[in-house]
TrEMBL record:
Pathway: Glycan biosynthesis; starch biosynthesis. Keywords: Coiled coil, Glycosyltransferase, Starch biosynthesis, Transferase. It comes from Phoenix dactylifera (Date palm). It is an enzyme of class 2 (transferase). This is starch synthase. Gene3D superfamilies: Glycogen Phosphorylase B (3.40.50.2000). Its EC number is 2.4.1.21. It catalyses: [(1->4)-alpha-D-glucosyl](n) + ADP-alpha-D-glucose = [(1->4)-alpha-D-glucosyl](n+1) + ADP + H(+). SUPFAM superfamilies: UDP-Glycosyltransferase/glycogen phosphorylase (SSF53756). The keyword Plastid does not apply. One of its GO terms (molecular function) is alpha-1,4-glucan glucosyltransferase (ADP-glucose donor) activity. PANTHER family: PTHR46083, UDP-GLYCOSYLTRANSFERASE SUPERFAMILY PROTEIN (PTHR46083:SF3). The gene is LOC103719956. GO terms for biological process: starch biosynthetic process.
Length: 708
């Protein structure tokens, strides 16, 4: 009977109590309690201080404090029902939370299935060829699919929100044909690296694409004499990867590498060009070099102008390149092209400045603007004023102090000066020189002109091909490595020792790279190398393009005979890559290396560049300068002030390596290896390619003058 009574009571007031154990409290956790009988019995059940927790809920409900057992208080039915209703409300709340969690779990499961599906698509894309007409595009599908997959992964990891991811996906979809060119080795990049590139890509899609035409005398790999050729090709490819249309116009030289031009064909139509008071015929050759549209202009009547052994160095250079400049402008008008920017280079095409504003701006080129890049102010081309009439210009109008009249030899005209005066912006190419130093110390008589036009003068650094000079994807290395994983550099160091026949190991390897243009100062170099050899360092000397044949170098080789010294007297492309990768230090004849950019490449390969530039005393001439940095995000007003210290590449090189000697570098390697490793990784994470700061400065200049 007692059992039946208890059962009936349980049916009347069932609820569960979860009790949190505490000192001096009863443990009633997860125990079913039944309220039955008289009110006194209920009071006994809850006698003493305790805390009630409803099952499955993470919020404690504090119970009323009860008096000691000798003071028995009565609990009414209303109180019991109140507790019961509270428990029911909490149970309902918990059920809602459970349902929400289940829905979230289902959502994650759907996203997981979507990711798995895309992975399957990616794998399938790698195995198949997607054909559009006669063009096969397996790489496009693979890169595009993997990029979308990585974006989804970033969302799941919480790196970006769904709104930003949606915007990036849309911009990727809009420019999917450019994905293989813009994003290289997606699988090798960390999420943070790829996200940074995606955000820059997203910003750049907001830009209006420009049509840019370079008119110049050199271009890699077709014809190359100096730094101009690599600059034209490197910058142009970077601009094209950025979504712009870029074309190059060159003279058709007899000794140019025509095999480097794809699809080269002679245009059927000929066009006339004004020269020497007459119109003369020209032929046009059209092709593609380095992925860029290329036009070659071949004179018919003046065929000897460019049918020579050398590019420069003839007494009629003014006539040759003035003819080419006028012919290039006539070609643009005859072909109906209306580029946004005419980009001209050095004195050879500087005459296009006055030609454009005096003649061609009125022939359908009213929306075009002119940017002039100068690589060397020492080469200016001074001529008699009446020679300007050869291409249709008025000598009397231009032979004035504020136009083409030379500042020193006033009876002559200065062609380079004309490019500065008649261009909307002027860019000086230098990785280490300041605007003030160029104007006041390296102007070669043009200081008054540069001072007047100072506001339109910019400094831009040289760069290098980031697709070729990158240890993370360099095919000439035995092992690849990056700032995130530098293990492969040790493999390259072993391979370099084996290639050069070094025995054993050493504390460091020092590579000495010289261009052959600047002779080596033995007085500075000899004691530095002797010190390194005494420290057990292994040293390699190598010349670039030309063998190291100077008498001073031969004498040094005889004097410093050592088992840990090697001289390489021939240029070897693969060995150069290995020296950059396997060395700890690269000795450079100068940090100012416009032709080969060895200092910047050394930094990218984790090898510290140390300068032995005796002409400028290393970098002592920069002491006292204010190394202020200007953010690349601050817009063109700031980039107009690009001066010494404001270029990212300049500031980094000077602040990190400008005052470091070979002695100090070896000391840090031996005594503070953790700092050395940090320095190496920090440099490798920087981007000094054409696609970085050089592109940013030129793009800012283009957009600024286009809006004039």
């Amino acid at each position: 009977m007692e059992a039946l009574g208890n059962a009936a009571a349980a049916m009347a007031f069932p609820f569960r109590l979860l009790h949190t154990p505490a000192p001096g409290r009863r443990n009633l956790r997860d125990r079913v309690c039944f309220c039955a009988g008289k009110d006194d019995d209920a009071a006994n059940l809850f006698a003493g201080p305790s805390q009630i927790k409803l099952e499955g809920h993470n919020v404690d409900i504090l119970e009323e404090s009860f008096a000691p057992s000798e003071r028995r208080l009565e609990m009414s039915d209303t109180d019991i029902w109140k507790l019961f209703n509270d428990a029911q409300r909490n149970i309902v709340y918990l059920n809602k939370q459970r349902l929400a969690a289940v829905e979230e779990l289902k959502k994650l499961q759907r996203e997981k299935e979507l990711l798995l599906g895309r992975i399957e698509q990616l794998e399938a894309g790698k195995q198949m060829n997607v054909v559009e007409g006669t063009v096969t595009k397996p790489m496009l599908l693979s890169s595009f699919s993997e990029l979308l997959l990585r974006i989804d992964s970033m969302v799941l990891l919480g790196m970006i929100g769904t709104s930003e991811a949606s915007d990036i996906r849309k911009k990727v979809m809009d420019r999917k044909d450019n994905i293989p060119d813009v994003f290289h080795d997606i699988q090798q990049k960390t999420d943070m690296e790829l996200l940074s590139e995606l955000r820059q890509f997203s910003e750049k899609t907001m830009r209006k694409a420009l049509h840019i035409v370079h008119i110049c005398s050199e271009m890699e790999p077709v014809v190359s004499f100096g730094s101009l050729a690599s600059c034209v090709t490197g910058l142009s490819c970077a601009l094209q990867r950025d979504g712009n249309l870029v074309e190059v116009i060159l003279p058709k030289y007899a000794n140019m590498d025509l095999d480097a031009i794809q699809g080269l064909r002679k245009a059927e139509a000929e066009f006339d060009s004004y020269f020497s008071g007459r119109w003369h015929k020209n032929r046009v050759w059209i092709g593609v070099a380095g992925g860029l549209g290329l036009t070659l202009i071949e004179p018919v009547y003046h065929s000897s102008f460019f049918n020579r052994d050398r590019i420069y160095g003839y007494s009629d250079d003014f006539e040759r390149f003035t003819y080419f400049s006028r012919a290039s402008m006539d070609y643009l008008v005859k072909s109906g092209k209306q580029p946004d920017i005419l980009h001209i280079h050095n004195w050879e095409t500087a005459i296009i400045g006055p030609l454009f504003w005096d003649i061609f701006v009125h022939q359908g080129l009213g929306g075009t603007r002119v940017l002039f890049t100068c690589h060397d102010l020492s080469s200016q081309c001074l001529e008699q004023p009446d020679k300007l009439g050869l291409c249709g210009l008025d000598p009397h109008r231009l032979h004035r102090p504020d136009r083409l009249q030379d500042n020193n030899k006033t009876h002559l005209v200065n062609i380079l000066k004309g490019g500065i005066v008649y261009s909307n912006k002027v860019v000086m190419m230098s990785s280490v020189l300041s605007k003030e130093r160029i104007i006041h110390s390296l102007s070669h008589g043009l200081e008054p002109t540069l001072a007047i036009h100072k506001e339109k003068l910019l400094i831009a650094p040289y760069g290098f091909d980031g697709t070729k000079w990158d240890p993370s994807r360099d095919k000439l290395l035995p092992a690849n490595y990056s700032a995130d994983d530098i293990g492969g550099k040790a493999v390259c160091k072993v391979a370099l020792r084996q290639r050069l026949g070094f025995s054993g190991c050493s504390s460091a390897i020092v590579g000495c790279i010289f261009s052959g243009v600047i002779d080596i100062d033995v007085d500075n170099l000899k004691p530095a190398i002797q010190h390194a050899l005494r420290k057990g360092v292994q040293c390699i000397f190598m010349g670039l393009k030309t063998p190291v044949r100077s008498t001073t170098m031969q004498a040094l080789q005889e004097e410093l005979k050592d088992v840990n010294m090697r001289f390489v007297n021939k240029y070897d492309e693969a060995l150069l890559h290995l020296i950059l990768a396997g060395s700890d230090i690269i000795l450079c004849s100068s940090f100012d290396d416009p032709l080969f950019q060895i200092p910047l490449k050394a930094i990218k390969y984790g090898s510290s560049p140390i300068s032995l530039d005796i002409r400028n005393g290393g970098f002592r001439q920069f002491e006292g300068h204010d190394f202020r940095s200007i953010s690349r995000k601050e817009g063109f007003r700031q980039s107009e002030r690009h001066d010494f210290g404001s270029l990212m590449s300049t500031q980094y090189i000077i602040s990190t390596f400008g005052k470091m000697s070979l002695y100090q570098a070896l000391d840090e390697i031996n005594n503070d290896p953790s700092r050395w490793t940090w320095r190496m990784k920090d440099g490798m994470s920087k981007d000094f390619s054409w696609d970085a700061e050089c592109l940013d400065i030129h793009w800012a200049a283009y957009t600024f003058i286009k809006n004039l």
